[in-house]
Amino acid sequence: MTLIVGMPASLTGQFHVQGRQALAGLQAWARDATDNSSESFKVIYYDDASDRSVVQNVTRHLIVNDRVDILVGPYSSMLTSAAAVVAEEYCKLLWNQGGASDSIYQQGYSSIVGILTPANRYLIGLLPLVRKTNPLATTVTLVRASTGEFPKAVCSGIVGSSSELGFSIALETEFEGSAVDFTRILADIKASQADVVVIVGRIKNDVQLAREIAESNARVGAIVAVAAGIQGFQDSLGPLANGFIGPSQWEPGAALVPDFGPTSQEVVKSLRNSDYRNIDYPMAQAYAAGLIVQRCLMETESADTRSLREAAANLHFSTFYGDFHIDRETGRQIGRETLLVQWQEGQKIIVWPQESAQRSLIYPWA
Predict the structure, then answer these.
(1) Whether the model pTM is above 0.85
(2) Architecture of the CATH domain 121-248+339-352
């Protein structure tokens, strides 16, 4: 028997890079799982065009017309939120591999399982890392896009942990997601003289603002851009990426020992067969979603939504991607934390948590 796995995938639009990576990750898992287990999996997908209305139409088509056994969510919080509405309407379990926004789990949905660390915990290690490497640091500047739940959630996590670690928010400012000129924002960052600067916008926002900061020779401390966790950040900026910190849901260098499924090295080898030179975390988290589905199916022996949701709530285990443990009521992932990486001499280096760190944090602009 072959189980049909459906996915809305951003093959075009603003999320096309990560959408294609996520699809490649899911396809690699299906290929490996079919080769190495008693079950067979087939992935079908449609382009959601990085658009909310399209993703809802695609999700509905996968459920109603294709009658998929397993529904895996798209990349991005915006699209996942839209897909979750449809999944809940049809009582179809949505395996959320690509939407980190906390608001997804605040709607009372019963048909969702979170794979990745929620947005308000994306940078949970940042201030402890800075405190460890720069005991005199005390101030934080937050720069975020004015629209979308994800930037707000990431920044709220920083605000929530700042006072207990002896930090204060020097400045919190916003920009339009469509912004291409960050002259005002750059002036605000310089004026704040903060020890830590956090940038959360669309990928193109993060890259452009990072470029302007690097080219301005601003005297700042640690600079975090959420987009700095992906290879595309360094591809766009080249040497200017040096020093920027970013969150990463997964890095092969972390070398976690899994309870279930292949090791990171085995997954990387499989993903490289998808013709990707660099393996970014969107590929890994989609592959991990497949593994988690596979493990839950071992408990249920059926793809029934209620049975799978119950299995997911009861299971605590680890894959190459890290720990899996969801909140029983909301489906929110509570078992794992993100890594922090920094670009150093053209390489993405893990700098947090301490047990996985490959090198110490550097401060090239101080």
Answers:
(1) yes
(2) 3-Layer(aba) Sandwich (3.40)
